[in-house]
Amino acid sequence: MANSSTVDMDPDVALRLFEEGATLVLLGVPKGTELGIDCKSWQVGPRFRGVKMIPPGLHFLHYSSVNPPSCGGEVGPKTGLFLSLKPREIVLANWDPKEEDLDFSASKNEEEVSRIRATLQELDPYLGPYPYEVMRKWVSLTDRLSKEVADNLQPLSGRICAYSDVIPEIEFRHTKDRAEQPRNDTACQSMREGLDRLPKMKQREGTELRFSVIPEKTYPPGATPAEITQCSLDLSYALETVLEKNHELQPLNLLGELQFAFVCFLIGNVYEGFEHWKCLLALLCRSEDSMRKRKELYLGLIAVLYHQLGEIPPDFFVDIVSQSNFLTSTLQDFFQYVSGPGVDGTLRKRAEKFKAHLTKKFRWDFDADLDDCAPVVVELPEGVTVD
């Protein structure tokens, strides 16, 4: 690997990882490919054959193909996948030049894996050591994320891509299908007309991230106008619905999903991950009733956010147009609700410390006047009218 920094590792830790660590054998990866594991990446050199001494557990392998300098040297979009590695496990993959992707099918061939294990000592000089200096950070970003949650959220294709793989909704195989589409041989008279002429696209089946679906309607069926207003201010009904449908047996796995979305965005460059992270955070921070009932969930949320917010510049969340900060407004609601009656004392104190930490570190003002008198526009159920 090129440009990898070395750090002094405790000899006992090094010995333990050498004996018990997992190994990724990645054969045929072209020189110049950007490849990384967890929070560290490198540009692959000509001798690279994989990564050794990987601590057992959940990891995120990510890579981008690079055009040779003679063809411009452009870096392709990033591809990643979560891997759960056992002690001394060998995972074998070969680079597929046609797909510009790693093919892990060889890992299912026990004879091939046994052959690699027998020649591991010869391969050792070509294996880069796991970047142990980022281990603490990686664990802090994924301590709530289990293999089961990651497997359930990853696309069925097994790859998390920085771009959406989209195909036309209608394939236009027949002349008749194409004839029914808007013509493109005349100038558009408006932006709307131009957009209407574009083919309708959909994500290729199996490539979608399988995040929990957050309900559009935040109130129960048959709710009265007063209940609709209440459920629009306090999102607890929507949060409990998400937990019941996706994490009923382990509600704290929602924090794992929050971490999964954040890693997809922070390391995998997946914008959809950032959007889902924002939606989950807003849901959690604006669920006043749930804060009274789910102490452990919210104590965990504070710990997760503490580590996540240390990875992003404070001005990242400022909207370019409105100059409003999504994060400060969302957390302002959280700190207001968590200081209310009926909230566990330990949770309230932890939230006060977290608020003080953020105020000191980022100079965010959570005590600005809340616009309590602003009207709340709510959607009424079908057939309900207000006189």
Automatic annotation (TrEMBL):
Keyword Cytoplasm part of the UniProt annotation: no
- Keywords recorded for this protein, A-Z: mRNA processing, mRNA splicing, Spliceosome
Q: Which residues form a coiled coil?
A: none
Q: Which CDD domains match?
A: Aar2_C, Aar2_N
Stretches assigned to the AAR2 N-terminal domain: 20-155
Q: Name one Pfam family in it.
A: AAR2
Domain AAR2 C-terminal, residue spans: 211-367
User: Per the record, what is one GO cellular component?
Assistant: spliceosomal complex
Gene Ontology process terms (BP) = spliceosomal tri-snRNP complex assembly
Family matches, as InterPro entries: AAR2, AAR2_C, AAR2_C_sf, Aar2_N, AAR2_N_sf
Family named by the database record: Belongs to the AAR2 family.
Subunit structure, interactors included: Interacts with PRPF8 (via RNase H homology domain). Component of a U5 snRNP complex that contains PRPF8.
Biological role stated in the UniProt entry: Component of the U5 snRNP complex that is required for spliceosome assembly and for pre-mRNA splicing.
Please identify the protein, giving its name as recorded.
Protein AAR2 homolog
Q: Which organism is it from?
A: Seriola lalandi dorsalis
